[in-house]
Specification:
Helix 1 crosses helix 2, helix 5 packs across helix 7 and helix 8 runs antiparallel to helix 9. The chain is elongated. It contains 9 helices and no strands. The longest helix is centred in the middle third of the chain and has 27 residues. The protein is mainly alpha-helical and about 190 residues long.
Length: about 190
């Protein structure tokens, strides 16, 4: 029997490889053998930890959601104290994300576009991620003294910036959305 630490390390290595492959090439384009080769585990070990590609995709999306939201919250908490400035810091973090060479847009939108119609698990993961991001923005917006409608508008600005940055291949949409957010918050709070 494996020790839990060995199992956890193997699973983490597989998920790291899957994250790079799925996000970089698309889920449907990547087979389990590519995940095995990239992670350095045997195919048998891969299937012991993730009995199907669907299981691996679900684990990848769950981990990506947790990490993405944690990275965002850590940046925002470090960047600003005042809620309105924290909301604007969201767009600063997006600009940093967009500038990463491997940026390909939202992994959840990409996964939903590929598999959402045929995979309830992928559709659920995408909806969960978007709902959690919107709820985070809603908490910040409420703390800034703005309405739930303002939170929904800010979420749309952020989501639009993510998609537009992926299509354009530049970071400009983050700054554009940040300026729109600034105007929206000024109107909503003052």
């Amino acid at each position: 029997m494996d020790h839990d630490g060995t199992r956890d390390r193997a699973a983490a290595g597989i998920l790291d490889a899957a994250a790079d492959l799925f996000y970089g090439q698309g889920i449907q384009a990547v087979g389990m053998d590519a995940g095995r080769a990239a992670s350095g585990v045997t195919l048998r070990r891969l299937y012991q930890l993730f009995p199907s590609k669907g299981d691996l995709v679900e684990a990848y999306l769950l981990r990506r959601d947790e990490r993405w939201r944690a990275d965002l919250a850590a940046y925002v908490d470090e960047a600003a104290v005042e809620p309105r400035e924290q909301l604007l810091a969201v767009f600063e973090w997006l600009a940093l994300w967009f500038a990463q060479p491997e940026f390909r847009g939202c992994a959840f939108v990409n996964a939903f576009g590929e598999l959402g119609a045929s995979s309830p698990a992928v559709a659920s993961a995408a909806r969960h991620h978007k709902a959690e991001f919107a709820a985070y923005l809603a908490r910040l917006t409420a703390a800034a003294g703005a309405s739930p409608a303002t939170a929904a508008h800010l979420a749309l600005l952020a989501e639009g910036a993510i998609t537009t940055a992926a299509i354009r291949g530049d970071t400009t949409p983050a700054a554009e959305a940040k300026e729109a957010a600034r105007v929206l918050l000024a109107a909503a709070v003052e």
